[in-house]
Amino acid sequence: MGILVECPKCKVRGSVKRKVCKCGNQVQKSDSKNYWIDYYINGKRTRERIGRSKQAAENRLREVETAKAEGNHIKKNKSSMISLGEIYKWYLDLPEVISLSSYNTIKGRLGNPVYKIGEKLRVSELSLELIRQYSVSRSKDSSPWKKQDHIATATIHKEISSLKSMLNTAVRYNKIETNPIMDASMPKLSNSRMLSISHDDYLRLMECADEHIKPVLTMAYYEPMRKDEIIRLTWKEIDIKAGFIRLAASRTKGGIEGRSIPIHPEVRKMLSSLPRSFQSNRVFLRRVNGQYVQFNDFRKSWKSARKKAGLDDFVFHDFRHVAISNLRKAGNSPTVIMKASGHKTMSMFIRYNLVDEEDLKGMKWVERKRESDTKEISAKKSA
User: Fold this and answer.
1) Residue 68: pLDDT band by 50, 70, 90 thresholds?
2) What is the reported pTM?
3) From CA 338, how far away is CA 280, in angstroms rounded?
């Protein structure tokens, strides 16, 4: 009973300890080698192909050893039977995933790694090295955005994170035994691009914006919400009397937990001035041919407003950073802000919490007194 390694050149299997195959190929240095486990059941020799992950082979061998020692039936390794593409299609058909407002975004983020790494690849063949190679290769892809030559690190980070999440869900549903890339390292993110704007910048932006997106910008500036949460907001989700915007779990990122967001006084004032439509329960509407209709895309209007206001580098998601930072400056505790913004970890919250020169002006210092001053004060107290 043990682990075997298959030479990618001649397909001969041998001890995992061998460095050079009989064909002369340097097996240990090859990235495309496959691992197998070798064991006996009722005197019959069995060899099971695991894939390119040595860790997965070791885990599977332990499962077999434990089952034999306890006299249990040895179950087939599910991860070696199902492909990455099959898991992808299964995951996108889950009701809990379909109900997410970010469904199309998730589908796109997963599609890139699934098709680039290989939809026919067995899940057991996934390895940390394959993820590393994908990360390097993806970073060299051309960006669809004019201001970027290549795909942003944050985009690759989200794609790998989505892939991990999909495989964790597959483990939870017993579709696969383990997540082979659970320990995959994520590309390091740079916080250098995160921008903030002053209140004067915001007012100038409002002056330059088309009428139908002004309420959207007001909501984004004051409330720690995401773009999709704002644009798809309905009147049923707004409780003016209680002073809360209440989002169901299906309307939040991850779709696991809903959240309540206090309504800022300026937002309350803005909401009371908005028209309503019998055709739509949406909060944000635009007037077309004398009728108010809902809209999902306002990229042209947003781009035009930024350009006129001289804020070309400011992207819509930066509003979320601004809102969170302003809540912190107002004296709210991190715990309260995180509850409203939906952040689950302090590390992610810190990334959104921008510190500017105004904050630094309030820096407090430890006052060090001279020893002679201390003795003088002590003498006075004694007297």
Assistant:
1) confident
2) 0.56
3) 31
Of the candidates 76, 39, 83, 94, which has an alpha carbon nearest to the alpha carbon of residue 61? Answer: 39
- Identify the CA nearest to 311 among candidates 231, 202, 194: 202
Task: Say whether pLDDT at 146 is over 50.
Answer: no
In SS3 terms, 282-336 reads as: ECCEEEECCEEEECCCCHHHHHHHHHHHCCCCCCCCHHHHHHHHHHHHCCCCHHH
Chain centroid, CA 256 distance in Å: 14
- For residue 92, which phi and psi values (nearest 5 degrees)? -70, -15
Counting Cα atoms < 13 Å in the Cβ hemisphere of 182 gives 12
d(CA 310, CA 198): 13
| 3-class SS of residue 37 | strand
Buried b (16+ CB within 10 A) or exposed e, 62-95: ebbeeeeeeeeeeeebbbbebbbebbbebbeeee
Q: What is the DSSP letter of 192?
A: T
Residue 130 CA to its chain's centroid (Å): 20
Query: Which tokens hold the place of 283?
Result: 């909060």
Among residues 326, 335, 332, 336, the alpha carbon closest in space to that of 356 is found at 326
Neighbour tally for 127: CB within 10 Å: 20
The pLDDT tens digits of the residues spanning 339-376 come to: 898 887 787 777 666 666 666 666 667 776 666 555 56
Alpha-carbon span 311 to 309, nearest angstrom: 6
Say whether 362 sits in a helix, a strand or coil. Answer: coil
Phi, psi of 83 (to 5 degrees): -90, 165
* Closest to 324 in 3D by CA, of 334, 314, 315: 334
Q: Does residue 147 have a pLDDT over 70?
A: no
Distances (CA, A) of 245 to 69, 256, 276, 362: 57, 17, 17, 33
Tens of pLDDT, residue by residue over 282-295, are 999 988 888 888 88
User: How many whole angstroms separate alpha carbon 204 and alpha carbon 309?
Assistant: 6
In angstroms, rounded to a whole number, what is the distance separating the alpha carbons of residues 263 and 219?
A: 9
Q: Do the Cβ atoms of 341 and 350 come closer than 8 Å?
A: no
